[in-house]
Amino acid sequence: MRTLIKNGTIINADATTRADVLVDGEKIALIGTDLAAEVGATADRTIDATGRWVIPGAIDVHTHMELPFGGTFAKDTFETGTRAAAFGGTTTIIDFAVQSRGKALRDGLDAWHAKAAGNACIDYGFHMIISDVRDDVLAEMDTLVDEGVPTFKLFTAYPGVFLSDDGAIFRAMQQTARNGGLIMMHAENGLAIDVVAGQTAAAGNTDPYYHGVSRSPVLEGEATNRVIRLAEVAGAPVYIVHLSAREALNEVRRARDEGLPAFAETCPQYLFLSLEDMGNGFNGAKFVCSPPLRPADHADDLWLGLLKDDLQVVSTDHCPFDFHGQKEMGIGDFRKVPNGLPGVEDRVNLMHSGGVVTGRLTPNRWVEVISAAPARMFGLPQKGAVGVGLDADIVVYDPTRRHTISASTHHMNVDYSCYEGMEVTGRADVVLSRGKIVVDGDEWLGARGDGRFLKRQTSAFLK
Ligand SMILES: [Zn+2]
């Protein structure tokens, strides 16, 4: 199957080009002007992208499909979550496999392979969450790097569940210094947070809003600095996930100014929502995630961080729980609200609307933070750009098309939207996943099981 995309404007991270793109099979075969005259006759179909952009399929490096949390599971399966991602212009996800305490990494990884294989509609990779750093687990990390799972997430939060102490984190970092892997950190001081949260609930403040105020941004800054310094001594790079607070950004910037290999992502919820959204009684449970939404003035700093490359990536931390039946488990105690927000479908459009349309980011920087940098950071050289020989993961994007975000029209399997009623400008018109059209306007043409496991390389940012 050969597809010609003609008359579009190709937006890559490093260049904007008016050119046609010829897709042959799963790959981009040719880029040039007037390909219609040259090879148009041999194409099986032609997409006229006049007035539209041709961008690399976006990559969301932080999702949690079917994640078990607090006695329930994130609602999206690999099928529903990846279909929603595709409608939003995302053609690759990297999800987090989870090691249970006392078990091998292998057990967790196998379980996630079983969830995704035959179900995912777009390509996917895995990071490995480590809950239990032991000698045998450290040895297993080397094996996983060789198997294309070279990134490992540890936590300074969630005592008793995911929290690793500083010694455990340090040992894992030493291991990646040797094997070329990358440690990703959820950096909040979970021990102090649990003290504050307990005192807050005991004082009768049980609404979801208090989830937000119990988790001080200073405790994110503290943990961020701590893990950066542990990595410095271990001689390893470190990547901070879902950075939400000015205090944490300041630590990443300071480390990068010192020349340390410290990296970070933020997420749309920290750019577009704020602590105020957590008010309004139990309705605030819709916005409970960790780190929590911050006072609105933090977002200005995060946008600046994206502009200046102190933040390299925008991911979603997509982890959807229904308001009815799931979030409601926390009525009367904010500590029992499942942590997580839906967002895998909205990231590309939100970042376009709030970044490019407002002039905060160039179109090229937009493509960089949603696709090109994620590909380089997470070892996917075949993705992240519209280039000859690369995977034909392509989005024909209409930067002028407007729509209103709503749970009544989104494709995520969750009963509410954090962005309900928000009007955004820009939308994916046609989405190709390895050469196959999976989304055409509002029509779904993809198929469950078409997504392939991506054996990833080590980070190109570190070479
Ligand atoms: Zn997460």
Topology:
Blueprint: E1 2-6, E2 9-11, E3 16-18, E4 20-24, E5 27-32, H1 35-39, E6 45-48, E7 53-56, E8 58-63, E9 68-69, E10 72-73, H2 78-87, E11 90-98, H3 105-116, E12 123-129, H4 135-146, E13 151-155, H5 166-179, E14 182-186, H6 190-202, H7 209-214, H8 217-234, E15 238-240, H9 246-257, E16 262-266, H10 268-272, H11 297-307, E17 313-314, H12 347-357, H13 363-377, E18 394-404, E19 423-433, E20 436-440, E21 443-444
Parallel strand pairs: 1-6, 2-7, 8-11, 11-12, 12-13, 13-14, 14-15, 15-16, 16-17
Antiparallel strand pairs: 1-4, 2-3, 4-5, 7-18, 9-10, 18-19, 19-20, 20-21
Helix pairs in contact: 4-5, 5-8, 8-9
The chain binds zinc ion.
Zinc ion is lined by residues 62, 64, 317.
Structure, described:
The protein is an alpha/beta fold and 463 residues long. Helices cover 31% and strands 23% of the residues. It has helices at 35-39, 78-87, 105-116, 135-146, 166-179, 190-202, 209-214, 217-234, 246-257, 268-272, 297-307, 347-357, 363-377, and strands spanning 2-6, 9-11, 16-18, 20-24, 27-32, 45-48, 53-56, 58-63, 68-69, 72-73, 90-98, 123-129, 151-155, 182-186, 238-240, 262-266, 313-314, 394-404, 423-433, 436-440, 443-444. An eight-stranded parallel β-sheet has the order 8-11-12-13-14-15-16-17. Strand 12, helix 4 (135-146) and strand 13 (151-155) form a beta-alpha-beta unit. Helix 4 (135-146) packs parallel to helix 5. It starts with a strand and ends in a 19-residue tail after the last strand. The model has no long low-confidence stretch (mean pLDDT 97). The protein binds zinc ion. Zinc ion binds next to loops.
